[in-house]
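A protein record pairs a chain with a discrete description of its three-dimensional fold. The following entry can be read in just this way:
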Amino acid sequence: MCPTCNGSRKYYCYTCFVPNPSITLPSVPKLPFNLHIIKDPRELDGKSTAVQARILCGPDQVCISEDFVDLDASAAVVLFPSKDAKQLYEVDWSRTSTVIVIEGTWSQAKTINRTIPASITRVTLPPARTSFWRYQSLGEHCLSTIEAIHAIVSNVNRHGSNFDNLLWFFAFQYHLIQAAYKKDSNMREFTSRHRPGYIKQ
């Protein structure tokens, strides 16, 4: 039971952003910028990987809301692969204090992106393949939210820090899924959106 809301949770409470009391969280270095995550209200809290960043980094560095909060446009960027999005190396990160991340399906993300002022620069990530157990319908190059957060934080790394612990919960769930699929081959029918060789034998 979550010690805050008394909800039944297994590993962490995705409503209160607290881990199961029996879990000791790993340390994550201070992020190079704050994260403002806008979550589509239709996206289930229990499916959100953005919650993992909030739990691991705390409220001082990660905010999750369902609406855009007014920010200094000159000191913020939006992580979204629009046609006019800049590459990471084209951004002055010394003047960027906030990265806005969108949490939702790609269809939902497009809608949310339109609600964010056009004056805020859009940025995009270098190509990468997701390790999520069921990738988006647009293909395996669409990362889950926590993977995208890890990617941008690691690329904009001013002090040579290692941010791999951002993927601590994600990696745990990845190995759970691998074990479940190996144990029950019938689970392969649950989704067809696996790249060849995803399940490690």
Q: What stands out?
A: The first helix runs from residue 50 to 57. DSSP finds four helices and eight strands in the chain.
